[in-house]
Amino acid sequence: MNANPPRNSAFTLVEMLVVVAILGVLLALLLPAISRARASARATVCRDQLRQMVVELAMYAHDQKGRYPHYLGPAGSSFGDAVGAGGRAQGLVYWSSKLIPYGGTRWTNRSLHCPGYREAVLEPHEKGSVDRLGGYAYNTKGVRAEKMNGGLWGLGPILFWRAVPGVDAPPVTESQIVAPAELLAVGDSQCKVGERGGSDVWGCIKLYGSPLEEAPYLNRHGVRDNQAYVDGHVGSMDPGDLYNPIRSAALWNRDHEPHAELWAP
Question: In angstroms, rounded to a whole number, what is the distance separating the alpha carbons of residues 89 and 246?
Fold first, then answer.
């Protein structure tokens, strides 16, 4: 007869609780690092896509004798994209459609947009409005106060905007851009938490008195949004700075001037 029977090798309840506690601590330490790595990967893909868009813009401008596309411009092939509908926008072609022959894709293709953007991707979506919803936007307005007209300082104005009464807005040419390395071309669309999506009409628009003024910006790939400049380089900024004309106005305007008269409340 064995005087020393073998001990039970199973874990005790206390040992199990210790193991669970250790695993919980390790998971708590790893999750933020995993989240940061995923955000960094999304940001990298986003930057690459914006860089490609600027290449396509440059190719288009080269073929058009130095002229950049309007946000919404002369009628022609839209390569399967929706065109402007109603009023002065009828039949006009969107900026991103002009880039399809140079490697771009249709607006409703999710692969065109930032991988961190989960909100709506829509072609013209509201009666009386020409903008679309999506992850990226084109420097249409430059800097100006909300609902204020005057001054066409962005890269791609809408054709029927009027700088001179009765005269359609001409396309911006390469010779009009004072500092290509300091003029925003395309970037993450402006979008705040609670909005349906970001408009692809882009500009430094101070939302004075708007309910959205205090709402937080959408976090797609960290706290900074990505932007591509006309010369092809890509940067990132805190959207609170990007859309604050006091800090960024000159970056939006082709003459590299702040034009404070257009954004003062």
Answer: 33
Q: Pairing between strand 72-73 and 136-145? A: unpaired
Residue 192, helix vs strand vs coil: strand
Phi-psi region of 192 (alpha: psi -120 to 50; beta: other; left: phi over 0): beta
**Residue environment code for 89-125, b if the CB has 16+ CB neighbours within 10 A, otherwise e:** beebbbbbbbbbebebebbeeeebbbbbbebebbbbe
Per-residue pLDDT of the chain (265 residues; tens, 9 = 90+): 555 655 556 668 777 787 888 887 877 777 676 666 777 788 899 999 999 999 999 999 999 999 999 999 998 999 999 999 888 899 999 999 999 999 999 999 999 999 999 999 999 877 778 999 999 999 999 987 655 555 689 999 999 987 677 788 999 999 999 999 999 999 999 999 888 999 999 999 765 556 677 788 988 998 899 999 999 999 999 999 999 999 999 999 999 999 988 876 5
Amino acid at 106: R
Whole-angstrom Cα distance, residue 173 to residue 51? Answer: 20
- Is residue 142 within 8 A of residue 154, CB to CB? The reply is yes
Say how far apart CA 228 and CA 58 lie, in whole Å. Answer: 12
Measured distance CA(167)–CA(156) in Å, rounded: 16
Q: What angle do CA 146, 152, 153 make, to 5 degrees?
A: 95
Say whether 234 sits in a helix, a strand or coil.
Answer: strand
